[in-house]
Amino acid sequence: MKKIYLILSICLLSLSLIGCNPKENIDPVVPPIDETDPDKELLEDKIAPILQFTQSTYRTARINQYTTDFNIFEGLQALDNLEGDISSRIEADLGDYDVTVPGEYEVFFFVQDLAGNVSNFVSKKITVVEYYFLVEKYPIFTGIIPNESAKPDKQKVFAGAYYHKVYSSKDYWLGIEAEFTLPMFDINRYNGQHDDRLPIDPSVKNLDNPSIYMGGHAWNESDVGLSLSLTVLKNGSTTIGSYAFRPFWRYITNRDYDIGGYDRANGRYYAVSNASGNNQTKNLFGNWDYLFTEYYYLPGDRLRMILYSPKPGYLQLQIQVIEKSTLPYSVQIREENGWKDPADFKSPAFSSPEHGSLTTKVEFKRVNAIDQSGNEGKPNIPTTSQVFDMVWHNTYLLRKIDGQMYRVVMNETRANFTNGPADSHFTTSGIDPVTGGETVRIHPNFN
Length: 447
Fold this sequence. Notes:
Layout: H1 2-19, H2 22-25, H3 38-43, E1 50-53, E2 60-64, E3 76-80, E4 84-85, E5 91-93, E6 103-110, E7 122-129, E8 161-168, E9 175-181, E10 185-186, E11 208-217, E12 221-229, E13 244-253, E14 270-274, E15 282-288, E16 302-308, E17 314-323, H4 328-337, E18 345-346, E19 350-351, E20 363-372, E21 386-401, E22 404-409, E23 415-420, E24 426-428, E25 438-442
């Protein structure tokens, strides 16, 4: 009997030990089941995404009609409460926007999340501006122009500047062009003490200011070209006086004024100021951004200047660089200040009623001048300032003859000249009958 109990005890102990084996007795840990469906959450979302500009400057844009790399979505950001950044899904309602057609456009943007919630709408105002290519050198016409206007009479002298003006007959001209080499000068009249060893002292305001420009007269007058102007120096400061020739365009119009300052963020790199108050006919002055040192032209630079009508009622200034100056004076100034090499320039097309209409006879001119600060229309102020030999290599008028555009030499058969205030202030070579060229020196103190 004792043997039976002993055997039973051993069996029970064995069973107990087997049951305590950890590898066979621990239940596996099963993670809790997440019954949330992520797709379902996104699809049932009720909160709309937010659409915004990363900077306010992206709300407007200014591009030319031949732009190919403009990103219409630049500066936009779309954020969703569940999906995060969904900027890649922004859509645009273009309306009538066409990058090839100049005009003012407003494009609207929106975005949807996966649940179909539509964001707020934002808009971008886009200005597409006209772009004109450099005017080609048209064939030179030497024949007889039927019914060409006669050579103009002498014009009266306008006080307040020393100027040599060569002006055309009034005829169906579409523009004027010329090649010239910018002259050296010696400026001696300032608003304060100056360093008289320098041709011009940029640290003091000069009161005599050289300019080389063209112009036209149809409904009213325009003066367009290069004037010695303020510049930026290598240290970032701006000169007090003039230091380099820079483009300007002065025009009188009763429409499409284009008044406004620089808007660099949106591609407007020029400013137009109004000198006529609230009058409908305004005397306007445009100039290019002074930070663009490639549009600083210096003595010895050989340039081709064109003033022409790209479409009826408008004019445009173009400057083509033929050769950079090798004069030590100009080379040194460019190197010292880190200015860029001179580059071709185009102004915006500006309003000039009746130019380019082919139904109105118009006049064009070229001018060498020493302008006198604050003295327009007043008697000339005596001065020892000078502008040395300025070479006009040629001068042509632009005209359409039998449907073809030509250059017609601007010589004394169709042009005249005026020296103000007197001939004695100038030395000229006379107008070349073949090229329309001329050499001009201004010396007001020689009587």
